[in-house]
UniProtKB/TrEMBL annotation:
It catalyses: Thiol-dependent hydrolysis of ester, thioester, amide, peptide and isopeptide bonds formed by the C-terminal Gly of ubiquitin (a 76-residue protein attached to proteins as an intracellular targeting signal). One of its GO terms (biological process) is proteolysis. Belongs to the peptidase C19 family. This is Ubiquitin carboxyl-terminal hydrolase 40. One of its GO terms (cellular component) is cytosol. GO terms for molecular function: cysteine-type deubiquitinase activity. PANTHER family: UBIQUITIN CARBOXYL-TERMINAL HYDROLASE, UBIQUITIN CARBOXYL-TERMINAL HYDROLASE 40. Residues 41-483 form the USP domain. The gene is USP40. It comes from Physeter macrocephalus. The keyword Hydrolase applies. Keywords: Hydrolase, Protease, Thiol protease, Ubl conjugation pathway. Residues 1190-1228 are annotated as: Disordered.
Amino acid sequence: MFGDLFEEDYSGVSNDHYGKGKKLKTKGLEPPAPREFTNLSGIRNQGGTCYLNSLLQTLHFTPEFREALFSLGPEELGSLEDKDKPDAKVRIIPLQLQRLFAQLLLLDQEAASTADLTDSFGWTSDEEMRQHDVQELNRILFSALETSLVGTSGHDLINRLYHGTIVNQIVCKECKNVSEKQEDFLDLTVAVRNVSGLEDALWNMYVEEEVFDYDNLYHCGTCDRLVKAAKSAKLHKLPPFLTFSLLRFNFDFVKCERYKETSCYTFPLRINLKPFCEQSELDDLEYMYDLFSVIIHKGGCYGGHYHVYIKDVDHLGNWQFQEDKSNPDVNLEDLQNEEEIDDPLMILKAVLLQEESNLIPVDQLGQKLLKKIGMSWNKKYRKQYGPLRKFLQLHSQIFLLSSDESTVSLLKDCSLQAESDIRRSDQQLLKTLTSEPPELNDRPSCPHWFDINDSKVQPIKEKDIEQQFQGKESAYMLFYRKSQLQRPPEARANPRYRVPCHLLNEMDAANIELQIKRAECDSTNNNFELHLHLGPHYHFFNGALHPVVSQTESMWDLTFDKRKTLGDLRQSIFQLLEFWEGDMVLSVAKFVPAGLHVYQTLDGDHRTLCEIEIADGEDIFVWNGVEVGGIQIPAGSDCEPLLLNVLHPATSGEEEECQQLIDSPHVFPSNAEIGSVFTAFAIPDGVILVNNTESVGEESWTTIPKEDLKKTFREQGLRNGSSILIQDSNDGNSLLTKQGKWITSMNEIDWLQVKNLCQLDSEEEQVKISATLNTVVFDIRIKAIKELKLMKELAEDSCLRPIDRNGKLLCPVPDNYTLKEAELKMGSSLGLCLGKAPTSSQLFLFFAVGSDVQPGTEMEIIVEETISVRDCLKVMLEKSGLSGDAWHLRKMDWCYEAGEALCEEDAALKELMLSSGDTLLLIEGKLPPLGFLKVPIWWYQPRGSLHHWKSHQDQTNCTFSQGGVWRANSIQDASSDAHAEVSLRYLGDVDISEDATLGELKSQAMTLPSFSEFSIPSPAFLRAWTVESRRPGRLLRVHYQRLREYKLGQRTEICLEPLQKEENLGPQHVLLRTQMRLPGKRAHALPGDLVWDTARGWTAGSLRHQVADFYCLPVEKIEIAKYLPEKFEWLPVPSWNQQITKRKKKKKQDNLQGAPYHLKDGDTIGIKNLLVEDDDDFSAVRDDIGSEKQEEFALGKKRSPEALRVRSGDVPSGAATPARPRGPEASLSIHVGSFRY
């Protein structure tokens, strides 16, 4: 259904599992890893099956489902051994599920495999790599199980555990006739958009009624005519397990694209479904459900990943955090105390029972609650349970609200029946609040929750579930179990409970086999082979070591444990070589084309072979460390022998034969001078040419200047297989040319240009240094110092820095890097600068003062990566010549602007992921302490509004600078003159705690010196907006709400708008700017503020009535439209009188908060009086002007060369392509055989 909608991204996973030089071993042969400390098993991801893994873990941790499946024996399901027999009726899917659940319970492995299960589904490898929707899978898997279990005792397994019914009723308002229809469900789909949480969604679905009236009447069969009616739905039958599927993914019909709803959506840990049920006469416990699984989707519409939070009902896992392993019982009592305080039902009962008449005003109930637990309802419970009054309404079986909802009391029956229990709970609560430890045996054990993410299982705390209320990583499916379902004591912490005997035996045998394989694997993984080359069996000639007799007799293979020390290895070799006398030196050797060469001598007998980084299959040369066969052996990488092809003239007494070339191989040490070639071939003088071209048939020869003959072979870039030509310097004709070969005077770019930037005089300003990609930066630097004829002391105090195309010096390159590692291209420019390059533990940083930085003007500094932000700031201030402590650091972003501040002053630069080459900005002003905000305050005066506040001076046309002058931002808005400009004046900064309320922020802003120009009676006469794109953005409405709850952030700015009267907007209020159209003028009157109460819904009818009352006009004689400033258009709002189908679509369509209106605070609504003007045009003259300019801009954009090339199909080769093409949608299916007899 959803195709690749939730395709997973594994691009960040590296396939390089092995270290450098290691011998590759087949990972598939290794047994699976054992379980981690949680003692729970995950499920391996087959490529795109995280959605399947999450659902399977939920079913596995549903003990009733698992045990019902285990109760079906082989006599009913058949046996997997018979699945390939043609006449056998083997129910493969339930058998594979049984086996998977047994593995998850008993098999000691980190993660189980679902390969056999998906094979039983009939899925191919393509299907396993494609991810689908878990809600869709839940229905398809249940359907497949029902089909597989036909004819068995478990035929009603799904129906018994998950099946419920809904009753839909339509009641005629005339004759009171009730028309009912029942509807089955296995899971309930609930809305997320425009809903605060699960209980709110259920209230809309099963409490509120849909009224058929006006043009949308209902045809009553009894009355036989169209009548007014009310439609409602109720839960008729509740299953033991209730599944909620959240509609997180929607489709935007305006943008024609999918989107994910990431708004806050709360759901309780325990829910009472009594208000939503048809039959409510049973005890409350019959309707109580506990949350035990939350499937979470992380990502967007076109990619993501699933994992699941699961409550371990049977305590099968080890719910203990790694840092608390030493003390498993730590904080257990504290967690239980928090659980009691977190139950609002118990606390409210306790508060009401303390009242003599059990009757109290709702407002006082909130105050009593504040005194009792030290926190208000809004701060402690509102996010999870909603407003206090709504909570009391939802629990009408306990609380009795008066008709005007001003007072509340406990129901008498409930009060008399539960008084003693509640008083006992209240006493226990008081003990908790006074820090008296409660008795552990008097309360249920703390719930054990785990985060199961494919193979990984981690313990979490119950409060971590709140993090999944909103965001890109948020809850997608909720699973509740009836609170009355109790588990038997013998099932607690017993994974073998109710598992069939044949599966127990299979898992026990598999565990024994795993133990044997792990022991074998451990031995195999820690043993490796070493090739011992014995010194007495080798002799040295032609620059390398060669065996005296044969390779087989000179080399011994030794299998050794790499966890042992070098001393153990030496002792073992002594025991093997009984003939050895004297010292024994072990050295790492390698075969090169010239023979065997000794590199590194091993020392430190106490170090293990792993620490020394000895690789599997390493060649070890065993000798005395000095000589072999009486010849001293050169060792090390510097003198590695090179096998070169040398072309030289033949030596003969006849002059004509001297023109013949002889091609002979010869070995030279890599650190020898190139001029030693003349000595090796007894040639007194001549010219040397080299050829490094790898491609056959395209030889390119380069003549080596005489001054370079003292360079080594390595410095010249020669390697094994390179060719050297020796030619007589007096011979003007090339020997190669005579033999049909061509010599080119220049090679391809094989040099780097080094400029002298040391501010020291030299004969040359820049030199070209020949190099290859494997040349070390240190060698290039030393060559440059020599050729520039600078002081030798610079070798200890200089570095090379790349120069970009703009001439800016970049971060110094470490000396030990090769050109390839430093990502330097041939022909690029480097600067030789004073100062050492940073070490591996240091950072090279650019920094500048202020936010207005021009590229190339930054200062530089080298600091340790472990230095704190505070100390780094001090060093930068000292280097800048600045003083004082009113400074802070910000990181510069890619567009040379100040980014986020480095708030954690004690954090190390390494912890903040800073790297060499980053630029930091010194910004004046001290950062507020942790938990405080520094909020810039602006004065906002809407132009042409119906209310005016005069200041002592009129400076509205001035521009603003941070000195406190007025700034007017001209924002052209074609609707009317009233929206032509937005005037903002900077008043100053306010330092305030995040725990302060919005009212306290307004009060503190009124104390600013610039605010004295205005006469504002109290903070209630101010309206607060966030500043976004230099104009008012989000309205901050609740006067007593804490700033932390607004999630303002460190860079938020606030503008204050003056009011003529006090304003106290609630969550249901929407502030709109309304403008009456002037008849015959194509213009609008000055705007007025309209506060729209949306308590009765975001419907067009509600808004029309509010507007009509505001302008004292008949509701049927007005038309309204929303202004779209970005399009210079008006979007009419219809009256919604057309006939709506009976599938409850009316509420979805008649919602101005959704598409295409998306109505919010600050939007402009145009009003037309049909009594004086009856056309459909809302536009003004400014709309025409703005629209024309917009069309001209779009036309000019289309005529650009790039656009023309794209339209003609001439797309440049470097054009960016989408990171991931969206694949075609594919349906999800599970293939099941027929078991109907």
